[in-house]
Specification:
This protein is of the alpha/beta class and 381 residues long. Helices cover 39% and strands 15% of the residues. The strands form four sheets. An eight-stranded mixed β-sheet has the order 1-9-8-5-4-2-3-14, sandwiched between helices.
Length: 381
């Protein structure tokens, strides 16, 4: 096949805004303000406004964002933090790094997100926080999670690395962006994210000015005034060149989200024509009160055929990815450290069946038709 298909087309996206990106990078280099330059402050302010006026603390990456958030909340070794078993490792990794106990819970089989019902089963007197992960681009059902957290005096740290730009609607009609509803929100600007830079980057959000000050101190060696260290911190900064890239991309984020939604709708429409009774695969579900920004378009492949389909598509030059092939509770790193409140059957089933197909802002119908045809030809064999 002559057509090149990418899981994520960063080059095509760059070419659309090349002048804005190049100009921002040149400005940083010309100024030589490489650390905490004006572009960083501009991005913090712009992202805070985009997120509805919350405080934004930039940092080096999404994993640091999660770790700094936990450090700022004053948790002690042995405290329990509830986290989904079906997600990327960083959400649980930072818990273990701080001597806390990751408590793994199952996810909803349709949305892949953690639920209040499953969280409730895991709460003990040692529980101190919940990390709901807005996986693949849509919000967890946050209203019952927040109610449960209030009931048990638990902190809520939203992992928003895959869903920035998504919006959740509460039962009273109030709307809020993912990452802005809990105690703290965290995100990553890894290049393939919906809002990605050209290296590593991350940010933390909150609505409490005092907590924001503490988060900023921890990210800056525990200091508010230079050489005066009030708390034990770390060194986690967003590079000024990466901030310049993000300043160019942030105004396009809603446009990017719309392009992803359009591509996802086309995938779903055509794939459901191929398999109207979901005999071979299941297309992504959307929570009724959340928008979806489709960081990934993830199918669940039935009858144990996921790996064979992936190999078949690879032979056709069509990339696909398995996010994630092993639940966190089964990872060697967490054996003897984590606990699970119950058998995590849904997480295991997801790990055995999920397959993400190309999804990005530059997808064309021509590319999508090739992907869809490849899937269809596999199941017609």
């Amino acid at each position: 096949m002559d057509m090149k298909i990418d899981m994520v087309d960063l080059k095509g996206q760059y070419l659309r805004i090349k002048e804005e990106i190049d100009s921002g990078i040149r400005e940083v280099i010309d100024s030589t303000a490489f650390i905490n330059g004006p572009a960083v402050e501009k991005f913090r302010d712009s992202l805070g406004k985009y997120l509805g006026g919350c405080h934004v603390i930039t940092c080096a990456n999404g994993t640091d964002a999660l770790q700094i958030a936990l450090m700022a909340l004053g948790l002690k070794p042995g405290d329990e933090v509830i986290v989904p078993a079906f997600t990327y490792v960083s959400s649980a990794e930072v818990i273990a790094l701080l001597g806390l106990v990751p408590v793994m819970v199952d996810v909803d089989p349709d949305t892949f997100n953690v639920t209040a019902e499953n969280i409730r089963k895991a709460i003990t007197p040692l529980s101190k926080a919940i990390i709901p992960v807005h996986l693949f681009g849509q919000s967890c059902d946050m209203e019952p999670i927040l109610e449960l957290a209030r009931e048990h005096s638990l902190y809520v740290i939203e992992d928003n690395a895959q869903a920035i730009g998504a919006e959740y609607t509460f039962s009273d009609g109030r709307k809020a962006g993912t990452g802005t509803m809990g105690t703290v929100g965290c995100t990553s600007f890894f290049p393939s994210k919906n809002l990605g830079c050209y290296g590593d980057g991350g940010a933390i959000f909150c609505n409490d000015a005092n907590l924001a000050e503490k988060l900023a101190m921890i990210a800056n060696h525990g200091q508010k005034m230079k050489y005066h260290h009030s708390v034990t911190g770390c060194n986690s900064r967003l590079d000024t060149i990466q901030a310049a890239v993000l300043n160019a991309k942030l105004p396009h984020l809603d446009e990017y989200s719309a392009a992803r939604r359009t591509a996802a709708e086309y995938y779903t429409e055509r794939l459901m024509e191929l398999d109207p009774h979901e005999e071979f695969f299941v297309t992504p579900s959307r929570l009724r009160n959340s928008t979806h920004v489709y960081h990934q378009y993830t199918l669940k492949i039935r009858n144990g055929k996921r790996d064979a389909l992936k190999e078949y598509l690879h032979g056709l030059g069509i990339p696909s990815m398995i996010y994630y092939p092993l639940p966190l509770n089964e990872q060697d790193a967490f054996k003897g450290i984590a606990r699970a409140a119950e058998p995590l059957r849904v997480s295991r089933e997801c790990a055995e069946s999920v397959l993400s197909i190309p999804m990005h802002t530059e997808l064309t119908r021509e590319i999508q038709d090739v992907v869809i045809a490849g899937i269809g030809s596999f199941f017609r064999k």
